[in-house]
Amino acid sequence: MSNAKQGNGQGNGHERKVTLTSAEGCPIADNQNSLTAGPRGPLLMQDVQLLEQMQAFNRERIPERVVHAKGSGAYGKLTITNDITKYSRAKIFEKVGKETECFLRFSTVAGERGAADAERDVRGFAIKFYTEEGNWDMVGNNTPVFFVRDPYKFAHFIHTQKRDPKTNVRDMNMQWDFWSLSPESLHQVTILFSDRGLPASYRHMHGFGSHTYSLINANGERVWCKFHFKSKQGIKTITDEESAATIAADRESHQRDLFESIEKGDYPKWRFCIQVMTEAQAKQFQFNPFDLTKVWPHAEFPLIEVGELELNRNPENYFAEVEQSSFSPSSLVPGIAASPDKMLQARLMSYADAHRYRVGTNFQQLPVNKPRCPVMHYQRDGFMSVGQGGASPNYEPNSYDDAPKEAPEYAEPGLPLGDVTADRFNHREGNDDYTQPGNLYRLFDEGQKQRLASAIAGALGQARREIQERQLCHFFRADPDYGKRVADALGIDVSEMMPESQTGATN
């Protein structure tokens, strides 16, 4: 029996025929033979299905991640087992028993896409929670700390983990030169070269948010927080000798273990916990609580259980769902926020920027990255946009009732930073936007004023009547004559539009 028939579902008890098509959905009659001028060729340019196949093949690869290039992923759920609403108003935590779908990507950090899973390395532990308030990305590692505390050093550190620019091989001189000149790396180096630098599988290691984050409750009260995921399978590691033997036999050992475990129903689980520190405690703490190279002592800040994370479904297509999955610490939901951690502050920008370069401007529209809640914003167009937003306005502020509006109830409390507070300050409050335009208008001679009013009316007259009336109010506030001239040019009787006392108002 031919493979072609098997592929069409024939000859094995099935009547269903699946017709091969082009990317546009057009049926393909022959996918074995090119269109040629006679049996010996040459090829014809009109063989569009061959051209499509070759052109698509040339574009199958996207740039690999600069860091965390080799990875494995799976879908699952977070089930809340303990009430922490006194710390956070995030809806993902709103009640015990609540389940939220998620996607988790494990990875090696330094290795390229062809790296072996069992190499000694830090492991990435990135989770995308599809909440009803948007996606929350917890982008962490299997270690609670990192090699550097200042983002200025991040790119330099990653360079030392990659290939020497001359020899094109990884070089211990590079790594240890950097580490020996960066004593803040010692904590992470100690973890990396301990037993935990060689986890037996992705299932047998912990995960950490590593950074300090904010949790904000319904009363607008903030605490600082660290996220922990404790493997319910227990910690299991291998030796250098076992690592070498594993790599020799199977470079995809962790990928295979994760996939096969889920396929047979042996779903890996982690206990999700937090550490909490109050703002008052942070001010008096013995070291900077936002330092990514240090942990918070568990004796002083014990783990508080939040829930259980379970992975229970494998992706159907690795490229679409794992390779194109994109995680960013900037993907935060109401009730979970950033902190003064300098490394986190830099990652808020760099991760999303990397995805826009690597995957595309609209990476959030891909199914694995797409929020499960409605998405309403004013971003438009760009590569691979599927027309999100439709015919609604692409600017704001606007006066359309059905356009997205800001929701002040989700505002975070200001963050005190010494003598100043980080917050969103109303730029119009206390500002006079009318005196200087009015002074300028009063400098014009009669002809200039009339031409100004005529030019404005020519453009403003094409807008809706309610927009014209709203703009006229601004002209009147700058100078009553300014407003009246434009109104007359528009053919609008301002005495019908507003009380006489308003037509003469000046600031």
UniProtKB/TrEMBL annotation:
Requisite cofactors: heme
Pfam families given in the database record: Catalase (PF00199), Catalase-rel (PF06628)
Keyword flag Oxidoreductase: yes
PROSITE patterns, sorted: CATALASE_2, CATALASE_3
Superkingdom of origin organism: Bacteria
Catalytic EC class: oxidoreductase
Transmembrane spans: none
Gene3D superfamilies: Catalase core domain
Record-linked SUPFAM superfamilies: Heme-dependent catalase-like
Entry keywords, A to Z: Heme, Hydrogen peroxide, Iron, Metal-binding, Oxidoreductase, Peroxidase
Signal peptide: none
Domain annotation Catalase core: ranges: 21-404
Region (Disordered): 389-408
Coiled-coil ranges per UniProt: none
Enzyme Commission numbers on file: 1.11.1.6
Family: Belongs to the catalase family.
PANTHER family per the UniProt record, alphabetical: CATALASE (PTHR11465)
Protein name as it appears in the record: catalase
Organism: Natronomicrosphaera hydrolytica
